[in-house]
Inverse folding.
């Protein structure tokens, strides 16, 4: 999938810093996510990967630096306004409506995208259309058997799939996935990444992932974050051969 390098990147950070008191967790991060990217963010535990995702979504404000979406400065925008513009991430499980069915959770996300979120229990035409779209998405994730089940009764791995379905139901321009395969059975994790791989080229994907086999298979580029700084970026082949990256992982005993 070719990217137009002359166009604005889908997402960009410039000189991004984040401190928690005297602890610096993001340091001078300059990052570009091209339109249509399938980009992995890796690094040792405690490298600041989730903090970086939180800075992109607006869950955290940077101590300094800027975040741009399609060339527009969105640094001061709230999470909600960034979602409206097309930046979506997997929800935390405790944000799911656990007593509602899987289908209702995804249906609500569709209705919210259409600015009809308050009409879940009214407006039959909108409700029916949203339910059909939600069911189609669950079918692509192999979750139709779970459609009527309350989320609270699903195993952890299946709840992770509901998070991903909700994020995709928003039809994002940028999809941010924080360890999408964590706790997900291998068959389901491959289903998730197959779906991600098949997304339109207009959607840019940035994901954090522990499983380096999945990273190597699905990422076209990889950024390596160490102590809050991006220290390397390249193709999966380049990253796999990089002596410094291998030393970092060996030194920490595991990747993540």
């Amino acid at each position: 999938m070719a990217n137009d390098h002359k166009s604005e990147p889908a997402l960009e950070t410039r000189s991004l810093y984040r401190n928690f008191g005297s602890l610096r967790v993001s340091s001078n991060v300059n990052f570009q996510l091209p339109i249509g990217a399938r980009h992995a963010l890796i690094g040792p535990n405690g490298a600041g990967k989730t903090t970086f995702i939180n800075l992109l979504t607006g869950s955290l404000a940077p101590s300094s630096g800027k975040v741009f979406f399609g060339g527009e400065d969105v640094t001061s925008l709230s999470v909600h306004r960034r979602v409206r513009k097309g930046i979506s991430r997997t929800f935390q499980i405790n944000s799911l409506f656990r007593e509602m069915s899987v289908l209702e959770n995804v249906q609500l996300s569709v209705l919210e995208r259409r600015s009809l979120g308050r009409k879940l229990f009214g407006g039959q035409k909108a409700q029916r259309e949203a339910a059909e779209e939600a069911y189609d998405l669950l079918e692509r994730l192999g979750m139709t058997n779970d459609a009527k089940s309350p989320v609270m009764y699903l195993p952890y791995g299946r709840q992770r799939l509901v998070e991903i379905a909700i994020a995709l139901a928003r039809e994002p321009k940028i999809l941010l996935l924080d360890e999408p395969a964590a706790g997900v059975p291998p068959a389901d994790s491959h289903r998730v990444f197959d779906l991600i791989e098949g997304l339109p080229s207009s959607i840019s994907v940035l994901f954090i992932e522990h499983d380096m086999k999945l990273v190597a298979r699905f990422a076209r580029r990889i950024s390596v974050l160490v102590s809050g700084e991006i220290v390397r970026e390249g193709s999966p082949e380049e990253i796999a051969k990089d002596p410094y990256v291998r030393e970092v992982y060996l030194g920490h005993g595991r990747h993540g």
